[in-house]
Design goal:
Structural class: mainly alpha
Strand order of the largest sheet: 1-2
Largest sheet: 2 strands, antiparallel
Helix content: 55-70%
């Protein structure tokens, strides 16, 4: 069908970004290794993009930004990246989850391998799926309550400027390099569950995904079904990674829609499904959708660089002091 090219394109973008993230992680490891080795390993510039892995610092930074009108200079890139991701979701569904997020890329690879091995993926009953999805909203509510309601702005600013937060990125690196105990067990179990289940972490536990899903409800772009063209074959519902009953919907409003275009790509009736704006008349071409996802996400980071809200104010000397 005409939209089949969307899946190879989406998967290519997914993997390119995953490789880019691995590269950033390696460069940051080299940056930290210079201080740990006492200067024996060569110095490497700190890659600011690693702040994508600091969601708590980003939420704190967003609150301080709203209350004070300025983005803090400690981890400004974390705020810029979070705002860019939210902007993508507000305009183009939760497409960050299916086009860019490295965790989503790994989980999709695993459940597809599981399908190849077991010839099926486990489809939990709707009532159980709803119950299993509740933890991610509870985790999100916890962070929203304590950061945006409970913490006064003075406490937020004090934490942002604390030595602990200044090297939150180093602590995150240390966490991944020294995985053991319950965290390691949790990650292994999640990876194993990703073989029979489609995207278990993203669907049931990810508070980031919960936030983006709630934002995406207001997105003008939605998968829309044409009654006159649809043959009610059910393929769209079968191919949906979050098990949305697309075939029974006129427009998909669910916060679980990740904008992956799988339902549209594999639709057997040409034109029965499309990503449309309100009014159901204006359809967004697939290539335009893909370009917009990249433009909004990457454009946000470019704007952060241009406006001076990208590079951390924590100096190399201070990193050296705090790491030691």
């Amino acid at each position: 069908m005409g939209n089949r090219y969307m899946q190879p394109l989406r998967i290519t973008i997914q993997w390119l970004y995953l490789f880019f993230i691995v590269y950033l992680g390696f460069r940051f490891y080299q940056f930290v290794a210079h201080f740990i080795s006492g200067g024996s390993s060569p110095p490497v510039p700190r890659p600011e993009g690693v702040e994508a892995f600091l969601p708590i610092a980003a939420l704190l930074g967003v609150k301080e930004w709203f209350l004070t009108g300025s983005i803090n200079p400690i981890h400004p890139a974390s705020v810029v990246i979070l705002v860019s991701i939210v902007a993508v979701s507000l305009l183009l569904r939760r497409s960050f989850c299916s086009w860019i997020c490295p965790i989503g890329t790994i989980e999709e690879l695993l459940w597809k391998r599981g399908f190849a091995l077991f010839k099926r993926n486990i489809h939990t009953p709707h009532w159980l799926d709803v119950i299993l999805r509740s933890p991610k909203y509870l985790i999100l509510a916890f962070f929203i309550y304590f950061i945006f309601i409970k913490m006064p702005v003075e406490q937020v600013s004090a934490f942002i400027n604390s030595d602990y937060n200044k090297i939150a990125d180093v602590r995150m690196l240390d966490f991944f390099l020294n995985l053991s105990g319950w965290p390691l067990l949790f990650i292994l179990v999640t990876l194993l569950l990703s073989l029979p289940l489609r995207n278990p972490f993203c669907r049931f536990l990810c508070p980031y995904g919960a936030l983006l899903g709630l934002v995406a409800v207001f997105s003008p772009a939605k998968v829309t079904r044409d009654h006159g063209t649809c043959v009610s074959c059910g393929v769209c519902s079968q191919f949906c990674p979050t098990y949305i009953p697309v075939m029974s919907k006129e427009r998909v409003h669910s916060p679980e829609c990740i904008g992956c275009w799988r339902c549209i790509s594999y639709c057997r009736a040409e034109g029965a499904l499309a990503m449309k704006l309100p009014g159901r008349k204006i359809a967004i071409p697939g290539i335009i959708f893909a370009l917009l996802v990249l433009l909004i996400f990457c454009g946000g980071t470019v704007m952060g660089r241009i406006s001076g809200h990208w590079k951390s104010a924590v100096t190399s000397q201070e990193y050296g002091r705090l790491i030691k």
